[in-house]
Amino acid sequence: MWMRALVLCHLLIAADLQSSNSQNCSLTCLRQGGPGCDYCRINSDEVDEVIGLKHKGTLGSCIPWPCFQLLEEEDPRLCQHFVQAPHDINIESVPSSDPNLDSVVVSWKPSQYGIEFLRGFQVSMQSLGGSGLACQLFLFQRKLTLSASHAQKVYKSDMFSGLSLGSDYAVTVMALPVPEKWEKFYHSKIFSTRSCEEKNGFLQCKADWYPKYVDVQQKEGVVTVTFNLAPPTMGITSYFCICTADSKTTSRDIIPNLSGNQTHHSFALEDLGEGSNYTCEIAANQVDAVRKVFYVKKQESTTEHHNFPYWTLAFLFVFAAAIIFVVILVIRMRKRYTQTKKLIIGPEIMIKQHEEEAAKKEEIVPLCGNRKNPPTLLICYSRCDGPAHMDAVMKLASFIQQHMATKVSLDRWDSLEMSKEGQMSWYCRHIRDSDFILVVCSGGLLRQRPQPSPQGVPTNMSEMSCEASSHSKVMVSLMGEEVGRAISGGEDLSKYMTAIFDYSDEKDVPTELRPVVRYKLPADLPLLFSRLHQVPLHSPGRYVSIKCISEEEFTEMPAGQALQQAISAAAKAMTELQHKQDIRLKIPE
């Protein structure tokens, strides 16, 4: 009957694979202990025939079923033996025909503790960040009893195929049977599959490819660039080139004629100033393509000098002077005519012309179209750094809500609702319902609660607020558990973010929140906007500039000025507080 329990503990997905240590045999052979049935792989057809399950979904996932639940009526002693988890788990990549997928084989050694009761192994493969799951089941025959010497034997699984290149997976090897009283019956290991370059070579990987050969030639003022094309198997049909010098940028798209030369292509760089040093980049016209950098200095064009008679030179000089005089006269008359025309044009026409010109230069980038409502953001912080730091947090929340199209939740804005629900209930509800959570980290977030004075009264208002805000540490611990659960389950961490102001350090970020993305404000306001609205800031040949949010422009708005002043005041207060604490340490009690 132990065979029936082991079969129900596993849903087999990979069935007809080859292995050097296991054999193809039936459950009947395993049960009777026939020759050649010492260590066998079990397929789903055998499960259907013996158990009588016509629908494989009845078995559920790869999680083993409780042993007591199935065998307590027959022999409950079968579920009380201890079999410790296997060890020395290794993952070995094996050749596969598909260039876009990887294949591996798992090997392990059984533990010597409880090996005489060992009945087999279950191996499962889980994709981190995805839903892919594959399982394999291997069983010993009932009459076979292993000794301690078998703990040095290496067992191997069948091949796990169809794994994505450059991805993270977790493999779990479990000893069978699984008793309900024990916990250390399995061992897991996280590994990464080979990258495309490791398996197929650099020239066959689209994501890592870039032009390695770039040659620049100049002749008679024309700059010609020659570069190597991507292999035809990658399907890259267009490229782009960007050159920058003296705050001036020129770009152009390159579409080579693949019906001719399929290995190299040449094109001319235009609109380059003479004598300027240009930094150029060339890459495939793909998202996040690797760029090749090269440098160009356009030489000044040379002309041949001839000897002319003196009267010819004098005539040319007089003619040039006359042309310059006429040009200056025309410019002055046109300038006077323009000034007169500006006085006649009404202000409403001037505004319309200005708006039309601005519309021609700007490019509108729409936000994510799938979201009907603005994203919601919960801001958590510590009150242990004084009122100046709390004022900076409030100014940050106001700026995000006014100029970043985001609905912000802040405890000081919802004090009435918090008094009804309670602080912990209010925070838990917003952590669950908010689209994003931003923790503003500072030195007070890591400090312990301050000690009261000998009379039992806090020494200043900062300490009082710090004592009253111990819930911030509880919130950090709660979010740390959510982050750890998301990491172990391969879930998305984009909901959680941390931030520090200019007067804080990266060491102020709690250890449990360091795996999530971190921003330094106000310099990273555009990156924060990109995360909230899922708008990429870079694309081939373009850079998206968000108005009034960049580090240079956010102070042009009243809310931005208030945020900058609050950050400066908080930095000054932090410096003074640290100076006072240093003086206290020097004065003996």
Task: Sum up the structure in keywords.
flat, Rossmann fold, alpha+beta, 589 residues, five-stranded parallel β-sheet, 14 helices, Immunoglobulin-like, 24 strands, disordered N terminus, six-stranded mixed β-sheet
Provide a brief overview of the structure.
By secondary structure, this protein is an alpha+beta fold.
Radius of gyration: 36 Å
Task: Estimate the strand proportion.
Answer: 15-25%
**CATH H-level superfamily of the largest domain:** Interleukin-17 receptor A/B, fibronectin-III-like domain 1
Shape: flat
Number of beta-strand segments: 24
What can you tell me about this protein's structure?
By secondary structure, this protein is an alpha+beta fold. It folds into three domains: 2-200, Interleukin-17 receptor A/B, fibronectin-III-like domain 1 (Immunoglobulin-like, Sandwich), CATH 2.60.40.2160; 206-297, Immunoglobulin-like (Sandwich), CATH 2.60.40; 376-451 and 460-581, Rossmann fold (3-Layer(aba) Sandwich), CATH 3.40.50. It contains 14 helices and 24 strands. Strands 1-2-6-5-9-10 form a six-stranded mixed β-sheet, with no helix packed on it. A five-stranded parallel β-sheet has the order 19-18-20-21-22, sandwiched between helices. The longest helix has 35 residues, at 310-344. The protein is flat, with a radius of gyration of 36 Å.
